[in-house]
Every structure is written in C-alpha cells, then in structure tokens.
Amino acid sequence: MRKCTVSIIALCVTTVTINTANACTGITLTAGDKSFITARTVDWSGSEMNNIYVISPRGHTEQSLLPDGTQNGMRFTAKYGFVGLGMQRPEFVVDGTNEAGLNVGLFYFPDFGKYQPYDAKYRDKTLADFQVVSWILSQFSTIDEVKSAIDTVRVVNIDPTASTVHWRIAEPNGRVAVLEIIDGVPTFYENPVGVIANAPNFDWHMTNLDNYVNLYPGRAMPTPFGSIKLRSLSNGTGLRGLPGDFSSPSRFVRAAFLKTYSIPQPTARAAIMQSFHILNNFDVPFGASYNLGKATFDMPSATQWTIATDTANHIIYYHTMYNRTIRRIDMNAIDFETVAFQSHPLDTTESETIIDAPVN
C-alpha cells in the first residue's frame, strides 16, 4: 500500500481550490481540412502551481489517491498512451489527449457539483476527481465508451472540503460532451457550441445564451430616434453588450460569440493560432482576481497556461504566463509502447523569450 500523508494530499488539492479566481475557459474550432481543435485557459490565482506535462505509455498502471491519506484506491492500467498538462503531481492531469485523439479537460465546478461520499468498502472502485482525466485518457477512445463505464467508478474529492469539477470530453470528429456529477449522479450533456467554463451547470449556460439574442457581429445600422438618427461610432457595435468581466457566465457567453463568429481557418495549424488569439480575450490580469489591496503575492497572470490541441494530427501546443512563446509536443514522435512514464516542467526557465528586431 502506498502511503501519502493527509497534509501532503491537502496541500495538493486545497492549493488549487482556494476561493479565488478559478476561471478556466474552453473552446473548440474546426478547420477547413476537418481538423478539430480543442483549446482552453488554465486559471488559478490562489498560488503559483507546479505546472508540468506528462507522457504516459501504454501499460502504465496508476492508483487513485483517497481521502483517508493513502494512495490505495482504484487501480487502472493504460490501454492507450497519452500526453497531458497538469499540476502539482503527475497523477493530476488537467488537460490531455490520447493516441486515439480523445481529448479530456478538467474545469472547476464549485457549489453545483456533488460527488458520492467516500466509503472505504468501495475503495477498489474509488477514483479521485483529479485523476479522472488520466483514467479516461488511458482507457477509452470515444465518448460513448466513457458513458458506458462511468457507473463502474465512484468519483470523490481527496479533500471533502474542496471544490468539485466537471469535464469536457472531445472526439477528433468534432463531437463534444460535458460530464457533470450532481447529487452523486453522472450526467452527460452534448455540447453543440463547443464552449465550457465553470459553474453553474452546463445546461444553465446554454439557456443563458438566449439572453444575448440581440447580439451580432459587425456594425449596428443607423436607427431612427425621433427626429434624428442614432449611428454607430465605430465598428463592432453589433456586439455591444457582450459581457467582458471574468465571471463564469460572462466568459461562457463571450467565448461562444467570439469562436462562433471567428473566420474559419483552412488548416489545423491556422486554427491552432486562431484559438490562441481568441483565448487572449480570457487572460485574467492577476490584480483582477482579488478585492482591491487584498492580493498577498504577485504572478505575471492568473492565467497560468493556455493549451491548444490538434486532435486529428495529435499535436499539443501551449504557452505559459512566464513565456508566451508557443511550444509543441508532437505525439507522433512518441513510441507509447516503449517510452517511460515521465513528467517535465512547462517552463525550463521562467522568463519571456524576447528577440531583437533587425535594425539597418
């Protein structure tokens, strides 16, 4: 039995669930060549995370951490190799893609989700919520396979006081689903807009989009106003009223409109670049995460990293708050049969890459 002290587990979990900005935003794009892109920000303002990427081979066995302080929960052995970005521990993969092109991401879901209570007699089927991404990526190739298997596990918090999460699951054919566990019951939603944020429930966000039926891209037309006409003072007035704050409902709406009206790109690479440009609108300045004067430390951003994945061609791209140079992990260069399980920091040096422009 592998031991892990309760204090260490609590540090791993509560560090990332502290009640500050956990403002992750996810989008998807489809390129003209039919490549399907998933992208998202990862936002924690509670502390600087130990941000890492993980390479997991076929045949790797993982065991779940438990609320009792042991790493003695459900064991699972990988059918598929995968690459994922995560934090704190190699088991805690936040967003990743497997050999089959299935992409899974974890997003905070505070106050609305509720798992089943931990029961030691079900230890061998108990799975920590922060290890669900690794479990899905290592075991399944489709959303329907996940649906069929979800009732065989009991998802729990390692720390019962921590926030719950929900998950985006995406296939390389463009199908996207959201998994939420509410009152202990797993619920799947098809996601036709390809957008996800945090609480409330996904179906609430979809209904809330109807409140913005008056918005459209481009410039508002002149409007008669008594004896005069009101006119647009600039381009973009058709989207006047699009919410710009960092709350989850506002980010969901903003992401839905910006991705829906973005110009479709012809290739996967172009769509990857487009996704980074769209997600620039969701970078959370660190000072916006706290009440005025209440921030106790400093970081370059509350958006600690942004990831975009070409699920069709199995290439992962990311940049971080320390270095916005885009880095790439080409899964095609990895032999998942022989590669060793490994993890590496997202940043080798915590500094921005700056290149001098040529001067004649």
Mind explaining what this structure looks like?
With 360 residues, the protein is α+β, with helices and mostly antiparallel strands. It has one domain: 4-Layer Sandwich (Penicillin V Acylase, Chain A), CATH 3.60.60.10. The chain contains six helices and 21 strands. An eight-stranded antiparallel β-sheet has the order 15-14-13-10-9-8-4-21, with helices on one face. The chain starts with a strand and ends in a 15-residue tail after the last strand. The N terminus is likely disordered.
Note the topology.
Layout: E1 2-3, H1 6-17, E2 26-30, E3 36-43, E4 51-56, E5 61-63, E6 70-71, E7 75-77, E8 82-87, E9 93-98, E10 103-108, E11 126-128, H2 132-139, H3 143-149, E12 154-156, E13 165-170, E14 176-182, E15 185-190, H4 202-208, E16 223-225, E17 228-230, H5 248-260, H6 268-279, E18 303-310, E19 315-320, E20 327-330, E21 342-345
Parallel strand pairs: 11-12
Antiparallel strand pairs: 1-6, 2-3, 3-18, 4-8, 4-21, 5-7, 8-9, 9-10, 10-13, 13-14, 14-15, 16-17, 18-19, 19-20
- Looking at CATH, the homologous superfamily is Penicillin V Acylase, Chain A
Q: Would you identify the regions where 5 or more consecutive residues have pLDDT less than 50?
A: 1-21
Q: Summarize the main sheet.
A: 8 strands, antiparallel
Listing every helix as H and every strand as E from the N terminus to the C terminus, the arrangement reads EHEEEEEEEEEEHHEEEEHEEHHEEEE
- Tell me the count of domains: 1
Helix/strand/pairing class, anyone? alpha+beta
Shape: globular
